[in-house]
Fold:
Amino acid sequence: QVHLVQSGTEVKKPGKTGASVKVSCKASGYTFTDYGISWLRQAPGQGLEWMGWISTYSGNTIYAQKLQGRVTMTTDTSTSTAYMEVRSLSSDDTAVYYCARDVNYKFDSWGQGTLVTVSS
Amino acid sequence: QSALTQPASVSGSPGQSITISCTGTSSDIGGYNYVSWYQQHPGKAPKLMIYEVSNRPSGVSNRFSGSKSGNTASLSISGLQAEDEADYYCSSYTSSSTRVFGTGTKVTVL
Structure:
C-alpha cells in the first residue's frame, strides 16, 4: 500500500532575510525511484496549485514559473524521502503543502498535507 | 500558465446527474489526453477520481465518468449521493511539461 507521510506544521516569520521552510515527504509501499514526486499547495479557502516535479530516479526537476528561483526540490533515495524548500517567504506562501506521487501526469497518492503559516 | 476554468458551483438532488466542465487551451487539455480529476472533502487531501480523460482508478465508483472534446474536459456524476458533496478539481499536463489545475467546483447535494 502506497503511503506518503509529510513533516509537521511550520510557523515562519515573513520578511526576515533568508526566511525559508523545508517540508519532507517519506514514501513507502513501492519502489521510490520508479515514480516522480510532485509538490502542490493550497492557500486557505483557495484552489490547488502545482509547484513542481522531481524525478526520484535522476533528480531532474521542473518548477512552476512563478516559483522559479525560490523553490528547490530534492530527494534522498537512501531513505525514500522527498524534500521541498521555499525561500524568501511572505504571507502569500501561507498554505497547506502536499506531496503526491506523479505517475504519468496523474497524482495517484497524496501525503496528508503540511500547514505552513507565514505570519509576524 | 493560467488556471483551467471550472464553474464555481454545481448542485443537484440525490439520484440526479451533474456535469462539471473544465476549459483550457490547445497547450494543455486540447493537446494531450492527460486530464485527471480530483475530489476533495473539507480538511482532507485530494483523491484521484479520473485519469487520462476517462479512466477510473480501482475503487472509484462507476457513477463517475470523464470525457473530453477539444479544449474542454468534463466530469459527470450520476446517481448523485450525499457523500459526493465536495470540491472537484481538474488537472492537465501542459506543453511546457508542467501541470495545471482548474479553479475548482463546489458540488452541493440538495
Observations:
- Chain B has no helices and nine strands.
- Residues 34 and 52 of chain B are 5 Å apart (CA to CA).
- The mean pLDDT of chain B is 97.
- The interface with chain A takes residues 1, 3, 32, 34, 36, 38, 40, 45-48, 51-52, 57, 89, 91, 93, 96-104 of chain B (CB under 8 Å).
